[in-house]
Design brief:
The chain has helices at 57-65, 85-105; strands at residues 16-23, 37-42, 47-53, 70-75. With 111 residues, the protein is an alpha+beta fold. A four-stranded antiparallel beta sheet has the order 2-3-1-4, with helices on one face. β2 (37-42) and β3 form a beta hairpin.
Length: 111
Amino acid sequence: MSLVFKDESNEKITPRTQIIVWLNQISDQYKLRRFGNIIYFSRKNKYVILYVSSQYAAKTIAELKSKSYVQSVETSKTDELDFSAEHEEKMMRELKEEAEKLREENEDLRV
């Protein structure tokens, strides 16, 4: 059983950055495989989402911008978002208070 369920608790997960690369032609997406892991690509909109190690992200972005087949490069904002339960509860409370306030203000408009 130890072969099937290998204990990998001592291995560290490297932090990664999500990079969005806009291409001139979608067929050039195969050239991006050497820069990182391709997570998604859109044929219609001609973009690729790559995961790259965070420590090499700036270097990779600079190198991608210099390529002729790349239209533009940007980093994803998902690292800046807060997905904690406390933050979600706070946002729900604020939305509830705002909805109740609007309801009280517009109560005289009801028939």
